[in-house]
Amino acid sequence: MFESLTSKLQNAFRHLRGMGKLTEANMADALREVRIALLDADVHYKVARDFLDRVKAKALGQEVIQSVQPGQQVIKIIYDELVALLGTIHADLDLGGNPASILMVGLHGSGKTTTSGKLARLLHKQGRQPLLVAADVYRPAAMDQLETLGRQLGIPTYAPRGEKDVLAIARGALDFARSHNRNVLIFDTAGRLQIDEPLVQELVRLRDLVHPREILLVLDAATGQEAVNVATHFDQALHITGAILTKLDGDARGGAALSFRAVVGKPIKFVGTGEKLDDLEPFHPERMASRILG
Ligand code: GDP
């Protein structure tokens, strides 16, 4: 995960550790390396700039400059700022209400359907009774895909083939959940190649009907800053409650993970780390920062 970012940061850290005495000039050199590492990883330039401003302000404090190992102190500051950038604490799901609803939204191919299945499995393991709801009326294959996942997982799926009205699906799913004692509904909604007005309108109507506790945006981390642009649009339209970053096992460079919170102002709640149904992890800023620093 993020190998290139990690190796570039480790280079910068080697230089920091090698510094006997910290001056404004040699620190500027080391921080320039960190900046390049972040930009190469596709971190949003404003996020990278603000990040380095904060590191610099702290690093030039007297107690750092006068310490025995100033380079090591700067590395600690970078770690702490990385954790802060990623959101500091793990943001849990809000599953209040009975049943609670989760809307899974995102572009086509982002990993929405797979992640719906992964999340259902995780919640089931935690003792919940999830219901998967196929709310994509445009692609019959999407209903089939979700139903197959549900069967593999042993979790019921509500997939009324032929129903073309998303709101009718939602009402039917809520009734089904009540009569079958399912306490969390996971709505796998339609995606498009690009966010467009009809899609947004449909999701808004669905949201206003089911009053979801969570609106989770599924984002392909491999798309870097573009993922953050997509997130900004979805958030303006729907007021998402958080994101799930998928495909962190692939060639994601880290830009989406590092820019998301600062740009969108919402937490990353989970990360997808593979194609298997177990490959979903709660997002922990400290663990992620440690992984990035290697
Ligand atoms: P949707 O169109 O948003 O519903 O996307 P899908 O759930 O169909 O996923 C698209 C592709 O991405 C599938 O081949 C999934 O197996 C794959 N995928 C989803 N999440 C991950 C992940 O975390 N890692 C990897 N490597 N592949 C993933």
TrEMBL record:
Function summary: Involved in targeting and insertion of nascent membrane proteins into the cytoplasmic membrane. Binds to the hydrophobic signal sequence of the ribosome-nascent chain (RNC) as it emerges from the ribosomes. The SRP-RNC complex is then targeted to the cytoplasmic membrane where it interacts with the SRP receptor FtsY.
One example GO MF annotation: 7S RNA binding
Free-text note regarding domains: Composed of three domains: the N-terminal N domain, which is responsible for interactions with the ribosome, the central G domain, which binds GTP, and the C-terminal M domain, which binds the RNA and the signal sequence of the RNC.
Complexes and interactors: Part of the signal recognition particle protein translocation system, which is composed of SRP and FtsY.
Segment forming the signal sequence: none
Alphabetized UniProt keyword annotations: Cytoplasm, GTP-binding, Hydrolase, Nucleotide-binding, Ribonucleoprotein, RNA-binding, Signal recognition particle
Reactions mediated catalytically: GTP + H2O = GDP + phosphate + H(+)
Protein name: Signal recognition particle protein
Cellular component terms per the entry's GO annotation: signal recognition particle
Compartment list: Cytoplasm
Gene: ffh
One GO term (biological process): SRP-dependent cotranslational protein targeting to membrane
Family: Belongs to the GTP-binding SRP family. SRP54 subfamily.
Assigned EC number: 3.6.5.4
Full protein: residues contained: 1 to 294 of 447
